[in-house]
Amino acid sequence: MMRFCVLQNSRGLHSQLKDSVPVAGLCPQGAYGMQDSLRSGFTSVKNELLPSHPLELSEKNFQLNQDKMNYSTLRNIQGLHAPLKLQMEYRAARQIQRLPFLPSSNLALDTLRGSDESIGFEDILSDPAQSEVMGEPHMMVEYKLGLL
Amino acid sequence: MATVAVSRPPLGGFSFDNCKRNAILQGEANKVGFNLPAARKTGTTICGVVFKDGVVLGADTRATEGMIVADKNCSKIHYISPNIYCCGAGTAADTEMTTQIISSNLELHALSTGRLPRVATANRMLKQMLFRYQGYIGAALVLGGVDCNGPHLYSIYPHGSTDKLPYVTMGSGSLAAMAVFEDRYKPNMEEGEAKQLVHDAIAAGIFNDLGSGSNIDLCVITKGSVDYIRPHDEANKKGVRLNDGALQLTGDYKYRRGTTTVLTKAVNPLDLELVEESIQTMDTS
């Protein structure tokens, strides 16, 4: 069944709060009802609500916002079918992935997006292949399935 | 990373994890009165001019770190593509990385289209990237090149605005250089005239601005050829003044005999007896 995407206005104060962006460990209660510092780091109320840098939120949502803008332009020019077809292809390509703790090439997704022909900071800085922390397999799969 | 184990796979790109920690450290350091180290900037004079057949770009070569000269001969004219070069002012790392990223993207784009890249493409890529980061990437650029539509010159500001003009200057010495341009610029100059004009503009920046200094680099881009002249002129050579035939300013501290008059002279020979003579060979293996 086709779903219509709802185009929200993502600007405005309420998007300045981290609330609107999923944050790992949002609920401070760990396994025993206490702050789980090992998994979610030091926190304070301010940490949870406000971003630590003005660019943090805009960078986190950059790809989403670009896509929304492009889809709405495409809808205005070519009609509803164009963004729907594209989104269907993206959803299909996004599902071709390994388990979260293994590196996936995302080849189909890259080709669709055109990011196989461009280089940005996400290719140079913080290369996930060389990250200093390792994801714990069970925790990552549980998080992905929403069980955590 | 702020935590030891993560529940989501890490993304590439900028990581803002340490921003709060840095803000706290800054606050603590200010309380004690200690200054955290400053990023290396190129307080600079860069400029460009369009002449009859192409574009001349010029830059000085000093990089500063606060009040200290960090690099006396740094190269501020960066390669973007065979027909496009870009001068960079602002934070040195930002200009370096930005121009390299855009150069790579332009190369991929050119391979994909099969054509020589246009200056307007490079301009558009740069302004979109700089606007995305809202001025936090401190790169002020002068972009110039020759493509199928002729010579073009753009100036790009850190927040992402651009201007397309026949002559532009950027950096801390931009006012001095612009004064020279405003006085002597004419449309459709010859190459020699244009090079002299850019040289004089950069020299004005070097001599009148503390953030600029050392040598003058020039880059002359015409259809089909690029002449990267580094250094075009060593304006600030230590101990030599520029104008009249290399006047030596560093002194020679050897004084000739007779500078100080001799009043009296007494010679006492020391009678020494040779007691023992021994030879010790050195091990030179």
Automatic annotation (TrEMBL), chain A:
Domain of life: Eukaryota
Signal peptide: none
Keywords associated with the record: Chaperone
GO biological process: proteasome assembly
UniProt-listed InterPro entries: Ump1
UniProt key word Chaperone: yes
One Gene Ontology term, aspect cellular component: cytoplasm
A Pfam cross-reference name: UMP1
Entry's family note: Belongs to the POMP/UMP1 family.
Name of this chain's protein: Proteasome maturation protein
Gene (UniProt): POMP
TrEMBL record, chain B:
Start and end residues of each Proteasome beta subunit C-terminal domain: 250-279
Domain of life: Eukaryota
Catalysis: reaction(s): Cleavage of peptide bonds with very broad specificity
Keywords assigned by UniProt, alphabetized: Cytoplasm, Hydrolase, Nucleus, Protease, Proteasome, Threonine protease
InterPro entries (UniProt xref): Ntn_hydrolases_N, Pept_T1A_subB, Proteasome_bsu_C, Proteasome_bsu_CS, Proteasome_sua/b, Proteasome_suB-type
Compartment(s) where it occurs, according to its Swiss-Prot or TrEMBL record: Cytoplasm; Nucleus
Primary location: cytoplasm
Pfam family, any one: Proteasome
UniProt-recorded Gene Ontology molecular function terms: threonine-type endopeptidase activity
PROSITE patterns with a match to the protein in the record: PROTEASOME_BETA_1, PROTEASOME_BETA_2
Any Gene Ontology biological process: proteolysis involved in protein catabolic process
Gene Ontology CC terms: cytoplasm; nucleus; proteasome core complex
Active site (catalytic residues): T44 (nucleophile)
Function field: The proteasome is a multicatalytic proteinase complex which is characterized by its ability to cleave peptides with Arg, Phe, Tyr, Leu, and Glu adjacent to the leaving group at neutral or slightly basic pH. The proteasome has an ATP-dependent proteolytic activity. This subunit is involved in antigen processing to generate class I binding peptides. Component of the proteasome, a multicatalytic proteinase complex which is characterized by its ability to cleave peptides with Arg, Phe, Tyr, Leu, and Glu adjacent to the leaving group at neutral or slightly basic pH. The proteasome has an ATP-dependent proteolytic activity.
Subunit structure: Component of the proteasome complex.
Family under the similarity heading: Belongs to the peptidase T1B family.
Descriptive protein name: Proteasome subunit beta
